[in-house]
């Protein structure tokens, strides 16, 4: 019998569902499975796939002799303090007994996919040295989470993660037109694709293709990626001015892509920070990379995870 205590973590996104068996002591992933989300089938079909994935991981883990003590599920939606999914931007689980379904397999926790990776980075990753940091994830969507003393701040209703989906309503000072720009529609992965396709007449399908075009010397792609990084940096700079964290940790596929997007993002953050004593704060890529959501979901399933934060594993 392996003495390591483990939990199942599921990271449920709009494109794929990543599942794994995570060691509590180290955050290592022992087993890993990835399946497509296919969200257009409806929330129940996605939930059924997630339950089957969790059951399979539990059976594999127990067969290998691991002590599997819970299930954590991170989902790309708003999640309230009781673990209820309260939005349906990508996956409609609002009217479904999500937590109850997983609890029939093992003790279960449902969490937002913004808070789960923030927890993982604070526990095992780039956030470990910091008492207060902001985690920002940039990929299909853009969201944020403040972490204080290892605890992701959820707010009064669980909604303290919306960074980029609300319009910034303003008026153009040149022509007087009413403007309603939305950061997520300008700087996220799908936004890069949509803006590039509209401007170039091409039909690329993924943000990676736009980044590849930048690397190949395409000036149009470079302009789109640069302005996206600038816009994201402006919003994160505002976040830093409001919250005054010790550091900013950035995850998500696009957030960790590096290159021009990262360079312009970091420069823009620093340009928009007001206080001289804050401007040089660390801005770091997530150490756990794309695994942060899976690992964080598993960690959230441990009811005593705050005790773990204070234990020797962090020191």
Describe this entry's structure for a reader.
This protein is an alpha/beta fold and 315 residues long. It has helices spanning 43-63, 98-103, 115-124, 184-187, 189-200, 207-215, 219-243, 259-272, 292-300, 305-310; strands spanning 5-12, 16-23, 29-36, 67-75, 108-112, 132-138, 142-148, 151-152, 170-171, 178-179, 247-251, 283-285. The chain folds into 2 domains: 5-122 and 290-310, ATPase, nucleotide binding domain (Nucleotidyltransferase, domain 5, 2-Layer Sandwich), CATH 3.30.420.40; 128-286, 2-Layer Sandwich (Nucleotidyltransferase, domain 5), CATH 3.30.420. The chain contains 10 helices and 12 strands. The protein is globular, with a radius of gyration of 20 Å.
Mean pLDDT, nearest integer? Answer: 91
The amount of helix comes to 25-40%
The CATH class of the largest domain is: Alpha Beta
Radius of gyration: 20 Å
Strand content: 15-25%
CATH superfamily of the largest domain: ATPase, nucleotide binding domain
Q: Give the SSE string.
A: EEEHEHEHEEEEEHHHHEHEHH
List segments where confidence is low: pLDDT < 50 over at least 5 consecutive residues: 304-309
* Number of helices, where a helix is a run of at least 4 consecutive DSSP H or I residues: 10
Overall 3D form: globular
CATH architecture of the largest domain: 2-Layer Sandwich
């Amino acid at each position: 019998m392996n003495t390591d205590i483990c939990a199942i973590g599921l990271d449920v996104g709009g494109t794929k569902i990543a599942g794994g068996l995570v060691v509590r002591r180290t955050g290592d992933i022992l087993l890993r499975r990835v399946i497509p989300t296919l969200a257009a089938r409806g929330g129940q079909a996605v939930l059924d796939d997630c339950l089957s994935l969790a059951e399979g991981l539990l059976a594999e883990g127990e067969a290998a002799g691991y002590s599997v003590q819970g299930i954590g599920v991170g989902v790309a939606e708003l999640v309230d303090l009781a673990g209820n999914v309260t939005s349906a931007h990508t996956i409609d689980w609002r009217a479904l007994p999500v937590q109850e379904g997983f609890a029939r397999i093992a003790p279960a926790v449902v969490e937002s996919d913004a808070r789960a990776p923030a927890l993982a980075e604070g526990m095992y990753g780039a956030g470990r040295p910091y008492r207060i940091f902001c985690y920002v994830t940039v990929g299909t969507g853009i969201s944020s989470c403040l972490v204080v003393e290892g605890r992701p701040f959820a707010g009064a209703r669980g909604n303290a993660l919306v960074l980029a989906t609300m319009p910034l309503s303003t008026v153009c000072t040149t022509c007087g037109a009413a403007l309603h720009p939305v950061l997520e529609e300008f700087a996220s992965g799908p936004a890069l694709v949509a803006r590039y396709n509209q401007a170039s007449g091409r039909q690329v399908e993924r943000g990676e293709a736009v980044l590849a075009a930048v690397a190949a010397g395409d000036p149009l792609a470079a302009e789109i990626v640069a302005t996206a990084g600038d816009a994201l940096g402006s919003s994160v700079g505002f976040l830093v001015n409001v919250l005054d964290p010790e550091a900013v940790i950035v995850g998500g596929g696009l957030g960790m892509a590096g290159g021009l997007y990262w360079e312009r993002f970091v420069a823009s953050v620093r340009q928009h920070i007001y206080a001289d004593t804050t401007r040089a704060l660390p801005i770091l890529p997530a150490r756990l990379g794309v695994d942060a959501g899976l690992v964080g979901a598993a960690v959230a399933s441990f009811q005593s995870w705050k005790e773990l934060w204070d234990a020797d594993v962090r020191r």
